[in-house]
Design brief:
CATH class: Mainly Beta
Number of domains: 1
Structural class: mainly beta
Strand content: 35-45%
Number of helices: 2
CATH architecture: 6 Propeller
Strand order of the largest sheet: 4-5-6-7
Largest sheet: 4 strands, antiparallel
Helix content: under 10%
Bound molecules: calcium ion
CATH superfamily: TolB, C-terminal domain
Shape: globular
């Protein structure tokens, strides 16, 4: 796949951003625990012509609707807090730009109009702003703009690479991962959304990636390779009590909280299978927030894709 040329770093760091799916409300009846279900999830899937398209899944067992349809890459989707819009990245004009579209796929607008490499979109809890990661000036930084594209601000402006931003539920902070303290691996950090008070939460010689705030704002789930393979960890937002939840020899990654914070969805290579695009694809799992009852989600072609984007085999 030519996707890797998009990034200097291991693509696993960034691709997982794509896999993140976003919940609003939770009311659908399904085979999932009731409180782990969702009304809408957005995800990315490779289509037959070999590029990513964005889909929305309505209800845990609902039908998936394809929202983009073009030969360019459309990825890194983030559902707005009110469920009416999706921010995403597309290179349809020849370079990466941040777009928004309505939840039905209409009104696709280029918000950035500024060539660069973009990824990792996330909305502010009040829906007025969008944060994302962009490669300009030789490294990745975290940016904020209003949801109409105005007032673009580089928040980090650092020589390090900052990746994958997760907005705290109270709106005041970002969690992200970066290589600022050691270019050979990454750590999880938090900071205020104006870039102040940068705090490192992990400190070891392994990659820590994919931070994701719990819905109540008290914990951060993330992925760590400190045990030799990728595991889902959770910690308090001050970095204390780092606990390995998945604890499985296969790679486990992309932790996504259920709307009520009692469950964590994740992808796992523990029973990988080959998909229609000849890339590794990984089933989705669900566990309780204490790591118990790790369950492979029932087969569903679309649902599998949520956590089943191709992962760099060399990762
Ligand atoms: Ca496309
Ligand atoms: Ca930077
Ligand atoms: Ca580390
Ligand atoms: Ca594992």
């Amino acid at each position: 796949m030519g996707i890797a040329c998009y990034f200097q770093k291991n693509i696993g760091y960034i691709l997982v951003v794509v896999m993140t799916f976003f919940f609003v409300a939770c009311s659908s009846s399904s085979s999932l625990p009731q409180d782990a279900s969702f009304d809408k999830a957005v995800f990315v899937s490779l289509t037959g012509n070999g590029n990513f398209e964005i889909f929305v899944l309505t209800g845990t067992n609902g039908e998936a609707a394809q929202l983009t349809d073009n030969p360019a890459m459309d990825w890194f989707p983030a559902l707005s807090p009110d469920g009416t819009q999706i921010a995403f990245v597309s290179d349809r004009v020849g370079d990466d730009e941040i777009y928004v579209m309505d939840i039905d796929g209409t009104t696709q607008l280029n918000l950035t109009n500024n060539p660069g490499r973009y990824s990792g979109t996330t909305w502010s809890p009040d829906g007025t702003q969008i944060a994302f990661v962009s490669y300009h000036n030789g490294n990745y930084d975290i940016y904020i703009m209003n949801s109409d594209g105005s007032d673009l601000t580089n928040v980090t402006n650092s020589p390090a690479n900052e990746y994958q931003v997760s907005w705290s539920p109270d709106g005041s902070q970002f969690a992200f991962y970066a290589d600022g303290d050691n270019t050979k691996h990454t750590e999880i950090y938090t900071m205020n959304i104006d870039g102040t008070n940068v705090t490192r939460l992990t400190n070891n010689n392994a990659e820590e990636t994919e931070p994701n705030w719990s819905p109540d704002g008290t914990k951060i789930a993330f992925t760590s390779k400190r045990d030799g393979n990728k595991e889902i960890y959770v910690m308090n937002v001050d970095g204390t009590d780092q606990v390995n939840l998945s604890n499985h020899k296969a790679d486990d990654f992309n932790p996504v909280w259920s709307p009520d914070g009692k469950h964590i969805f994740f992808g796992s290579g523990r029973s990988s299978w080959s998909g229609i695009i000849n890339s590794e694809r990984y089933p989705s799992y669900l566990m309780n927030v204490d790591g118990s009852e790790q369950t492979r989600l029932p087969y569903h072609s679309w649902f599998e894709d949520i956590c089943c984007l191709p992962i760099n085999p060399s990762n």
